[in-house]
Design a protein that fits this description.
single chain; alpha+beta; 6-stranded mixed sheet; 5-stranded antiparallel sheet
Length: 384
Amino acid sequence: MADFPIILYFSVMDFINHLREKAAVQKLEKFIPAIAFLGGFSWDSMTIGSKVYGSDLIFLSFYYLLALLSIYFIATRLVIDDENCEDDTPSFFSKILNREWPSSWIDRLTWIVQFCFGNLYSALVICYFKSSGSIASFIIVLFLVSLLVGNEFLKEKYEKFGVCLAFFCLLGTMFFNFLIPHLVHAMGALWFFLSTFLSIGICYLLWLKFSRDKRTLVAPIAITLVLSIAYVANWIAPVPLVLKQQIVCKNFDNETYSCDADKLNFWQRNGFAQMTIHKEEGEEIYFMSSVYAPAELKAPIEFRWYYLIPATQTFKLTDKISSSRMIIRGGRDAGYRSFSRKKNIPEGTYRVETAYKDGAVIGSSTFKVIEGMPKNGFVRDSLR
């Protein structure tokens, strides 16, 4: 009876294998990657794209662990043989973990790796896109998009342990960088480099067990170094912070977070023309932002003011404004609200970035300060 779970397990898999041999099923299988890709990405857009729940983190963790287990099984055919098992009476799990899988099973395992990688890519694309506020971080999102699409064509490549290990290292670092802030309710360099250490550490343990070829570790180490440099250079989006709203205005009310903003015309409302703010001499200009963060997460932010130099048409950093009140306290669906202000601001074009303190940009807005009254008048606006 001890072998009954194993017999049942392989009986079920044999049934699935016979089912896949049918012509109708084989035709359907050709569309499975496209269906899984579109379905998974649509689901992630509707769920994680709106708000991250604890169940989302559980599902993503499951995909990561399932990918890890599948890569382990793929790698067993490199060095492990049933006859080399040291335990005379191996347990069920020992028999499953320490066996050389036949080629037909490798095909199934690589499909599982492809499926898990695709789900992780899909979720990370959405999460990092929502948090990207600079060109550099958006380029990284585009890189993830390319991997998401390319994953649909890499199934056969995943039979190679080195290929699996490289992509697994990349996904692991970016996944842990997203997961850990939710668990510890904090952000920062410590947690990012902990994510990096966990990911490369797991990959190293896999390499240590199945491959002593140092060339196999080159790609994971290179990926780790590149991601570390990208983080130091503030190219990695500050997940899980998400910009919700930005307003430039005057006559600010601290209790209601409302103020007077220029009434936008059609082109400004749809992003085809630059925003403006008109003011009289001596009036202060306010810039307000709301940033969403998961419940209980705390993170300091700052506002960076840039002025466009007319002679060179380049932006110059003029002020970095932060204070003890600019600490995001997560959980508010509309985002944590904060503001900065400038006195005696001259006319000209400005860009203000809302950023994680001394870190990556969460979002930015460019506007023009003009003396006088706006043609369309003012409107009372507020952060939700």
